[in-house]
Specification:
It contains eleven helices and 21 strands. The chain is an alpha+beta fold. An eight-stranded antiparallel beta sheet has the order 2-1-13-12-11-10-9-8, sandwiched between helices. β12 and β13 form a beta hairpin. α2 crosses α6 and α5 crosses α6. The mean pLDDT is about 95.
């Protein structure tokens, strides 16, 4: 690794300037590179404060929420069970959780373990039930799913599903005989020597921790969030919290096919490789991502010499915190960005691209085709939590309105954003500096907008 990478005054100046540009109060950016013997060189650079209310500075030991990157952790715990022969990816969920029910009695028996970690279970994904802070919160969450209706069919189209990962977490609890939080500590954090990783909100008091920030009001003023963490019941989908260093050391275990940099094996090479093997092809829906592995999103980056390099990556977005982890197994390199603001999406994209360029890597961007229009897509699309409306303004341009139907822990403001046609049935939206692609999908069960989640059309 270049000795100056994230270690020079110029890099510090660059990070400080970018954080100011994107109005992100605090950030950690880190990079890990393995040498020929598998030894890890880890660099972390920080900027800003943990909270605008306190002015406490961010350090390398500050904890940030990894958000949905936690799904890779939960999948890893699940694959450990596969390694031990306690289940297979094609085991029906009800074989382990016989009381698992949905409002449609025929749906639950058809759901397989594999579908939970590839977002193809058909369960409505944005169910953020608060079932308390006890060790039985995940069990109670799964029981409450009996009142929810499926979104699509089991094994059908991919639609991002937090609920599926909570179910995976419950499987881990049942087969391990302990809370999911304790399984993270016992089977991942402690064996890998990760001493700055937590999953319970109460443990944050033992560390310096970042507070999320959200845009409030019409002026979109950046302010500390009123809630620190999502409900404990959704832990397996998004509550792992820690430092950039610890996240990169977790990634190094995957780069080393299950072997930690401290020499501890926590996953078989076969399972680590299976997690990075394509399970769901998204090339018909995305010009950016190949598809989904087990837990990981698979994306082709431009590599040295122009040849594509496959990245295994995942992002996270919780209450005013945005995270990004991208690993390049062919190169033995991983990059992460942890931020404490909703605006961190644009910052993480820009930082990742700058660090990746040092390795000759270029991030993918949505393909743009001239001459497309969106007239056939105009209307409203919904999930259980969000209503999105695509409309044409008086100026002739297209716009996307977003309404949070159930705010839950967040009341951040979502402005109208321009939707730029990018091809037949496709458009892109600038989400606080991150260019995001939406695709129109017609399936046998409905008419949708796809942006990882399927949002079902409700009117035209």
């Amino acid at each position: 690794m270049n000795t100056e990478l994230l270690a020079s005054p110029e890099w510090q100046e660059r990070l400080d300037a970018l954080a100011t540009k994107h109005r992100v109060p605090g950030v950690q950016v880190g990079v890990l590179a393995l040498d020929a013997d598998g030894n890890a060189d880890v660099r972390v650079l920080v900027s800003g404060v943990t909270s605008l209310a306190t002015g406490v500075t961010v350090t390398e030991d500050t904890l940030f929420q990894y958000g949905s990157i936690s799904k890779v952790w939960t999948t890893t715990l699940l694959m450990q069970l596969v390694d031990e022969g306690l289940l297979t990816l094609d085991t029906p969920v009800v074989d382990v959780l016989p009381d698992f029910r949905l409002a449609d009695p025929e749906h639950a028996p058809k759901v397989l373990v594999r579908q939970l970690v590839t977002h193809t279970s058909g369960i409505d994904g944005d169910i953020f039930l608060d079932t308390g802070d006890g060790d039985d919160c995940v069990e109670k969450y799964v029981a409450a799913l009996a009142d929810t209706h499926p979104y699509t069919r089991p094994g059908g189209p991919l639609s991002y599903c937090n609920a599926g990962f909570v179910l995976a977490g419950r499987i881990i609890e049942v087969l391990r005989g302990m809370a999911w939080d304790d399984a993270v500590a016992r089977y991942l954090a402690r064996p890998l020597g990760l001493d700055h990783v937590i999953t319970r909100a109460k443990d944050a008091l033992l560390f310096r921790a970042a507070v999320g920030h959200q845009d409030e009001g019409e002026e979109r003023e950046v302010r500390p969030a009123k809630v620190w963490m999502l409900p404990r019941s959704v832990g397996p989908a998004g509550l792992v919290t820690g430092t950039a260093d610890n996240l990169l050391r977790f990634a190094a275990m995957h780069l080393r096919d299950g072997l930690g940099v401290n020499g501890e094996r926590v996953l078989s090479a076969e399972s680590a490789q299976a997690m990075r093997t394509l399970q769901v092809d998204l090339t018909a829906l995305s010009t950016v991502d190949q598809g989904w592995g087990l837990g990981w999103i698979l994306t082709d980056w431009g590599g040295p010499g122009g040849e594509p390099v496959t990245a295994a990556q995942h992002g996270g977005h919780t209450v005013g915190q945005v995270a990004r982890l991208t690993a390049f197994p062919e190169l033995g390199v991983a990059i992460c960005v942890l931020t404490n603001a909703d605006r961190g999406m644009g910052l993480s994209d820009e930082l990742q691209a700058l660090v990746a360029a040092e390795f000759g890597l270029t991030p993918p961007t949505p393909a743009i085709e001239e001459g497309a229009d969106l007239e056939d897509l105009l209307g409203s699309y919904e999930t259980v939590m969000v209503r999105q409306t695509l409309l044409r303004g008086d100026d002739g341009k297209y716009y996307l309105d977003m309404e949070i139907k159930d705010h839950g822990p967040t009341d951040s403001h979502h402005p109208r954003r321009e939707a730029v046609p990018s091809g037949k049935g496709r458009f892109v939206v600038d989400m606080d500096g991150a260019l995001t692609e939406f695709t129109h999908v017609v399936d046998e069960e409905g008419d949708y907008l796809f942006m990882f989640r399927l949002s079902k059309r409700v009117d035209r």
